[in-house]
């Protein structure tokens, strides 16, 4: 779908585009290779609900953070 950038450097996606992706209120915007990609951000409530569904508690989150901080980052050449 197409949209145009307004003189205020803003763009408004069409209603059809937003309905097609079950869009929320906020988006992550990334530009790559001449394309702009919008990804819907989940609100905190949705994330907390997902944690409950997955039966993940505070201890699991602490363990995951500890594990991720122990990993070493190797940048790609």
Short description:
GO terms for molecular function: DNA binding. This protein is of the alpha+beta class and 77 residues long. Helices cover 38% and strands 16% of the residues.
Structural summary, described in words:
- By secondary structure, the chain is an alpha+beta fold.
- The chain has helices at residues 15-20, 44-53, 58-70; strands at residues 27-32, 35-40.
- It has two domains: 1-40; 42-71, no CATH class.
- It contains three helices and two strands; from the N terminus they run αββαα.
- It has a two-stranded antiparallel ribbon.
- It comes from Caenimonas koreensis DSM 17982.
- GO terms for molecular function: DNA binding.
- Keywords: DNA-binding.
Amino-to-carboxy terminus distance: 35 Å
Regions with little confidence, pLDDT below 50 for 5+ residues: none
Query: Quick one: overall form?
Result: flat
The sequence of SSEs as H and E is HEEHH
Provide the domain count.
2
Give the helix/strand class: alpha+beta
Query: How many beta-strand segments?
Result: 2
